[in-house]
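Quick log. Single chain, no ligands specified.
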Amino acid sequence: MTHNVGIWIDHRRAIIVSASEGVVTTKTLESEVDPHPRYSGFPQEGRGEKRYEAHHTERLHQYYDAVIGQMGHPGAVLILGPGEAKLELEARLSRASSASSRTVAVEAADALTEPQVVAHVNEYFRLAH
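-> predicted structure:
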């Protein structure tokens, strides 16, 4: 059974909405990624800005992989969000081996509640198909 997935995402959490023939499920994933303040400090014991950035990037990749793992194999994906996370997830998804046959759309969206995300995703896929 083909399903569509809508994801509202920022660096702190992702709301994943899966819609299939009138059945809608949601799941929220909380990120374990620390806020990304500017690096300030001096290198101590080999821990400089590059190492800090590499660690932060790796944590984001793990978060995006966890989100992608919750999607299953959708026919189409809508990614929503207020900042860079939606574009970073799109890039990560495009590198995934199973991404070649799915349609991916990205839209800017402010902070939304779970019911707002569900409504937006349902409306998007109702109009798109």
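The chain has a mean pLDDT of 85.
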